[in-house]
Amino acid sequence: MRLLYRRLFATCVILSSLLSAPVDAQGQADRFTGEQIQRDLDSLAEWILTIHPSPFVHCSSIEFNDAVESAKTTFAGGGTLYGAAQMAAKVCNVLKDSHTGVALQSFSEQLGATYGHLPLEIQTVENRLIVTATAGDSAMVGSEIARINGISVRSVLGGGLALISQEGDAALARLRMSEKLWNDIVPFSVGASIADSIEVDYASGVTEQLPVLDNESIKRWHAAQNEVAPISWREVQTDSVISVVLTIRHFHPENVRSFRQELQACFRHIRSLQSANQSLPFAGLVLDLRSNSGGHIAIMAELLPYLTSTPIHLPAGVQIKASRAAKNRWGTGRFGLVGRNSYLKNLQVLKTTLNKIDNDSIAYIPFKRSIQPRRRLAYTGTTALLLDGLSASATVSIASWFVRSGRGTTFGEPPMGSVSGTFGNPVRLVLPETGLVVHVASARYFTQTPVRWEARPLLVDRPVTPDAEDIQNGTDPVLDAALNWVNHNQQPQP
C-alpha cells in the first residue's frame, strides 16, 4: 500500500514540475492585453477578499498578494484566454480551496467555441497517459499515448494541471481533475481548431488521426461514454454470498423523488436479503462514490439515515461571511426540500443569519438538528466505501464521517478534500475583461466539533488504482478488492 501511495504522489510531483511556465499558444485570435488581464486579476482578488469566509486558512495574506502580483507580471504583455485562465488559477490555487477557482465547465465551453475538443479520454497510470475512451480505434483503449501532433502529452497535462484548484493537500485528486480537462485543452495546446484533425502517436508505434469536435458534439460523445444513472444498485454474487453495490454519481437535486425512491428500494432489498430464509447469505454493502463531485447537502442528508443507528451531526456547523454576492447566492437555495422539522432547517437558520448580519461580518452557525436514522431500514452491517480523486465536496463530508465513526473500510484513492471539512456554496462570477467564469466559496463546512481545520488529505484504508491492463480489459480492481473484503468480514444478521 505504501508503495502505491508513493507511486501516485510521485506522479503528482513530476507533473507539478511542468507548471513553471504557462502554456500560451502564439498567434491566436483570442488575445487580451496585459492591462485587461491585470484588471481581471484585481477584480478576482477583490471578490475573494470580499466573499470568501476564510481565505487565509492554508496561506498567508502575503502569499496571496505575491500570487496576484506574480500573475500580473507573468502576462504583463498580454495573452490568450488560456493564459488568462492560468493566471486566475494561479491566484486561486494558493488558497487550496477546490470551490474557489476557474469554473472548468464554462472555461471548457468558452475555449472550445474556437478550438474544439479532442474525443479522447485518459488516465495517468505510473506517470503514463493511458487511453480510457476514444472516438478512434477502440483497440487503443489501455494504450499509452506518447505525443499529440508531435507535442509531449505530459506538457499538455501539466498545462491543464495549472488550472485546477485543490482542497488542502489533496494533490492526487488535483491530478485526476486535470485528466478530465485534458481533451478540452489539447486542440489549443497543439495549435488545432474545430474541423481539424489531430495526430495521436502511441508508445506502441501506432498512429491515428482523430477529429476535433465542437461543443455540442463533444457533449454528445461524453454522454455516450458515460451513460450511467445518478443512482443505481445491484446484487453481486461472489464466493457463495450476496453483496449489494450502491452507486451514487452526484448529490444534485434534479430529481429528489426518484433519488429517494431508489435509496428506499435499495435498503428494503438489503433488509430482505438479511432474512433467515435466503438461500445465500448476505455479506454486506459496497457504497461506490467514485467520481461523485458532491452537490447539495439536502441530497447527502437523504443517504445517511440508512447508514446509521444513531443521530449524525454533519456538518457540525458552517462559517459564513456576509456579502451582497453571498446573500444573493443563498437567496436562490432549494429550500423547497426542507420539511417543517427536518434536519435541513439548519440551512434556513443559516440563511436567516446571513441576511441579518452586516456585510463583511463573519458568523458561525452550528447545525443543531441532526440526521436521524431511518427506523426499520437503517443498515448497520458490513460496509465498504469506494472513493477516487474525483470524489469531492459533500462526498468528502460523508467520507470523513465514515472514517471517523469507524463505519467501515475505504478503498480506492484519496478524494478531493481534507479530514476537517470543505469549503462550499460557491458564488459564480464573470471577470469583466476576459469573460472568464470563476467561483468563490461563500461558506466553510466543518465536519466535527470541537472545530479544527487541517490541510492533510483524507487517505483511504486500502489504496487501489486500476492499471493499464485493467483499463484495457474493463476490469475494476477497486470494486473487486472491496467485495473480497466484505465477503470476509460479514457481520451476523440482525
Counting copies of identical and different chains, the oligomeric state is single chain
Structural class: alpha+beta
Unreliable spans are 1-28
Rounded radius of gyration (Å): 23 Å
Tally the helices: what do you get?
15
End-to-end C-alpha gap: 34 Å
CATH class of the largest domain: Alpha Beta
Q: How many strands, which pairing sense, and closed or not: the largest β-sheet? A: 6 strands, mixed
Mean pLDDT: 88
Principal-axes shape call: globular
Percent of residues in helices comes to: 25-40%
Count of folded domains: 2
Question: Strand order of the main beta sheet, please?
Answer: 10-11-12-15-16-19
Characterization of the model:
With about 500 residues, the protein is an alpha+beta fold. It has two domains: about 1-215, no CATH class; about 230-485, 2-enoyl-CoA Hydratase, Chain A, domain 1, CATH 3.90.226. About 35% of the residues lie in helices and about 20% in strands. It has 15 helices and 19 strands. The strands form five sheets. It has a six-stranded mixed sheet, with helices on both faces. Strands 3, 13, 14, 17 and 18 form a five-stranded antiparallel sheet that branches. Helix 2 packs parallel to helix 4.
List the keywords.
494 residues; alpha+beta; 2-enoyl-CoA Hydratase, Chain A, domain 1; 2 domains; six-stranded mixed beta sheet; five-stranded antiparallel beta sheet; 20% strand; disordered N terminus
Secondary-structure map with pairings?
Elements: H1 2-16, E1 31-32, H2 34-51, H3 61-74, E2 79-80, H4 81-93, E3 101-102, H5 104-115, E4 120-125, E5 128-134, E6 145-148, E7 151-152, H6 153-161, H7 171-189, E8 197-202, E9 207-211, H8 215-225, E10 231-238, E11 241-248, H9 256-273, E12 282-288, H10 297-303, E13 317-321, H11 324-330, H12 345-356, E14 362-366, E15 383-387, H13 394-404, E16 409-412, E17 421-430, E18 437-446, E19 462-463, H14 468-473, H15 477-487
Parallel strand pairs: 11-12, 12-15, 15-16, 16-19
Antiparallel strand pairs: 1-2, 3-18, 4-5, 6-7, 6-8, 8-9, 10-11, 13-14, 13-18, 17-18
